[in-house]
Design brief:
Layout (H helix, E strand, L loop, with lengths): L1 H8 L3 H11 L6 E2 H7 L9 H9 L3 H7 L6 E3 L9 E3 L2 H12 L2
Antiparallel strand pairs: 1-3, 2-3
């Protein structure tokens, strides 16, 4: 849990908001368009997949300083579709939620 707390402390603000959204929906694959709409202030002229990927790059310092791998999975869109999907396993979400509560 200590590494999870370090990871959270090092997150860039937008990356933290996206990750917290994933934590509130453990086990559910969330499309990048939903993350843009619900977390990042709605659509813009850019590609939602690129926007989310750019935001998640704000997790790199947390990942390296905590010594843990990225705590989410991602899936590329099927051929002919747009955007990636992201998810956090329920067991991983429980560790990070406990870290947020300081337990």
């Amino acid at each position: 849990m200590k590494r999870a707390a370090v990871f959270l402390d090092e997150l860039a603000p937008q990356a933290r908001r996206v990750f917290e959204y994933l934590l509130r929906h453990p086990g559910r694959r969330i499309h990048c368009a939903e993350l843009v709409d619900k977390v990042l202030g709605g659509p813009n002229e850019g590609d939602p997949a690129r926007r989310v990927a750019g935001v998640l790059s704000g997790m790199s310092r947390g990942q390296s300083n905590s010594g843990r791998r990225f705590p989410f999975y991602w899936w590329e869109a099927p051929e002919g579709s747009a955007g990636a999907s992201y998810a956090v396993r329920p067991s991983v979400a429980a560790v990070f939620l406990a870290a947020q509560l300081g337990q």
